[in-house]
Specification:
single chain, Rossmann fold, 5-stranded parallel beta sheet, 4-stranded mixed beta sheet, 8 helices, globular, binds guanosine-5'-diphosphate, binds adenosine-5'-diphosphate
Length: 204
């Protein structure tokens, strides 16, 4: 019997560095997590590639995915839809591999309902002023959108207690190291090795 993989959800306010931390994490050679690519109705930013960064969809196509129950969770976030295709998550977990989602807070809470056994990590900024300057410096949002994202961010930070772990993103490499340590500890805590030994002893 294959042990199911672990579902890992990284969430937190926009601009905290989720995308940056996730990319740095997946650049590490020893990483064994599978990244779930989301669907979105947001227009691609410069340099973003369909099927790599997101599956870019029209609103109608996205609404079809919702109706046909193709999404594990979805949320409307600052005017656009974002969602996690369910088949990839189910198939990958069933094959024994860990799946990594990088999603906003409403979606993360939906995943928690569907997968309470998942590992939920909240990425927190060192301060609200640092969060704002990260969003401003990224230069992808207009003034209105920045204010919108800061308003949403404050609501999201209030929900951090629903998570298993809060990781501060002071430096990208520190945040990555903390996430890796949490995932490793979680594997040990969930007794995967002892389950394997129990099965070996049963065969003896
Ligand atoms: N609920 C949900 N949120 C997502 C998904 N994919 C991305 N997001 C989140 O949507 C928000 C906006 O993403 P994006 O427009 O790429 O901006 P950025 O992450 O701030 O650069 C971020 O908080 C993402 O983590 C998804 O599949 N579901
Ligand atoms: N630890 C960090 N220290 C300083 N700047 C950071 C850090 N992590 C991310 N950033 C910067 O903050 C901005 C927002 O990061 P991004 O990954 O797009 O956030 P999110 O995906 O959470 O919206 C980017 O310009 C990124 O380079």
């Amino acid at each position: 019997m294959i042990e199911r993989g672990l579902l890992i959800v990284l969430s937190g306010p926009s601009g905290v560095g989720k995308g940056t931390v996730r990319k740095a994490l997946f650049e590490q050679e020893d990483i064994k997590l599978q990244y779930s690519i989301s669907a979105t109705t947001r227009r691609p930013r410069e340099g973003e590639v369909d099927g790599v960064d997101y599956f870019f969809k029209e609103r109608e196509e996205f609404e079809h995915m919702i109706e046909n129950k193709k999404l594990l969770e979805w949320a409307e976030y600052v005017g656009n839809y974002y969602g996690t295709p369910i088949d990839y998550v189910e198939e990958t977990l069933a094959s024994g591999k860990d799946v990594f989602l990088e999603i906003e807070v409403q979606g993360a809470l939906q995943v928690k309902e569907a997968f309470p056994e998942g590992l939920f990590i909240f990425l927190a900024p060192p301060s609200l002023s640092e969060l704002k300057s990260r969003i401003v410096n990224r230069g992808t949002e207009t003034e209105d959108l920045i204010n919108n994202r800061m308003r949403v961010a404050k609501e999201e930070i209030e929900l951090m207690d629903a998570y298993d772990y809060v990781v501060e993103n002071d430096k990208v490499e520190n945040a990555c190291a903390r996430i890796q340590a949490i995932v490793t500890a979680e594997h040990c805590r969930r007794d995967r090795v002892s389950a394997r030994y129990k099965r070996m002893l049963e065969v003896e």
